[in-house]
Write a structure and sequence with these properties.
With 74 residues, the chain is mainly α. It has one domain. 47% of the residues lie in helices and 11% in strands. It contains 3 helices and 2 strands, in the order ααββα. The protein has a two-stranded antiparallel sheet with strand order 1-2. The model has no long low-confidence stretch (mean pLDDT 87). Bound molecules: zinc ion. The site of zinc ion has 7 residues, from loops.
Length: 74
């Protein structure tokens, strides 16, 4: 992914994807870690459209869908 220098400086940097995922997991909206071409660190992006979702986000969506199904059947 292309990152503008200004965005890179503003964004939080993570040393590893695992670290970034731990933060993303706690966020109330979907975030996805990516490797920055400028600083070589990991940033988080809210742009998940057309991207592979992290495992926890897939699980979260699957769980939400299951709840909706249960409510519809009840
Ligand atoms: Zn960066």
């Amino acid at each position: 992914m292309r990152t503008k220098p200004g965005i890179c400086q503003r964004k939080k940097r993570f040393a590893s994807e695992e670290e970034a995922l731990r933060v993303a997991e706690k966020a109330p909206f979907p975030l996805r870690p990516y490797r920055c071409e400028l600083c070589g660190h990991i940033h988080l992006t809210g742009r998940t459209k057309g991207m592979k979702l992290p495992a926890f986000e897939i699980a979260r969506r699957r769980a939400a869908k299951a709840v909706r199904r249960e409510n519809a059947e009840a």
